[in-house]
Amino acid sequence: MLDFAEQPHKRKNLLTGEYILVSPHRSKRPWQGQVEDLAPDNRPEYDPKCYLCPGNSRADGTQNPPYKDSFVFVNDFSALLEDTPTGQFNEENLLVAESERGICKVISFSPRHDLTLPEMEVDAIKAVVDLWQQEFETLAANEWIKYIQIFENKGSIMGCSNPHPHGQIWAESSLPVEIEKESAQQKTYFEQHGRTLLQDYVALELKKNERIIVDNAHFVALVPFWAAWPYETMIVSKRPVSTIQGFTEEEKADLARTLKELTTRYDNIFKTSFPYSAGMHQAPVNTGEHPEWHWHMHFYPPLLRSATVKKFMVGYEMLATPQRDITPEQAANTLKQQSTIHYKG
Ligand code: H2U
Ligand code: ZN
Question: Which atom of ligand 1 is nearest to the CA of 104?
Fold first, then answer.
């Protein structure tokens, strides 16, 4: 009989329909806890050269207000533009292209240059969640916008350009690739079962309790059965809500608590500010009802063995399929063992 803790196998990602490869025999024991002597992070509370700090100037010459919680502005180097003309290009069905319109925004999470999400108070994180919800509503009021991607790149290893805590929002006129995949998978499931895919998946994960990291009144954080990155996790709402717009005050407060606990556990693994790309996946907007869509948030952190040794998604992963050594269950155990008090105190 196949032993999933010991022998190579494939696991199916229910949200994309794609498979990942798990090779547990390559690292039977998770190699955890190495703490390196990195240069201490001595960021000041205010950096006069930071384009996100209150009162400072940005690339386009505008000055940030003296904001107190979080602050949002249109990205001065937006990847998508609102006034791009509509157009299509097709040559013999071999060269195919079409225009894409969008609005890109940057959100500073805090006026404090020296903090990160896990180091912020729950109330301050709640203010970020409130702003995400407001921005979602404002952007969705544009009928031509079909999808709103809210995300955060954290750490220079993830291409983040500034340590000041911040995230981004890209709203656009068509559905991005990952959303197309997850839409199709969730729709098929909903049509067959009359319940959302993640509703049933989370119920089963709660029953098994092998990969659950955080479990509170309104959210769970877990290592998905099909996680590809070493410490990949997902936050899922317990109620099948299709977008952030549907969250109540209580749910938003619980989301803030969940974010704080999960990111604190991350930082504690290697006693470092844990880098990641994280973001919400939610229903498309201005495209009718989407009862099949279940709001969730993915965390894709690259670290594997220490504050500097990352997992490389190269070779086989680029050419064939994502592969991992430590199992999702081992990663979940490591995360569960961490304190919920930040190592910096
Ligand atoms: P990242 O650190 O995740 O790259 O996000 C920072 C964004 O901030 C980046 O997309 C924008 C960059 O275009 N930016 C401004 O909008 N104004 C500035 O003055 C500098 C950077
Ligand atoms: Zn700053």
Answer: 10
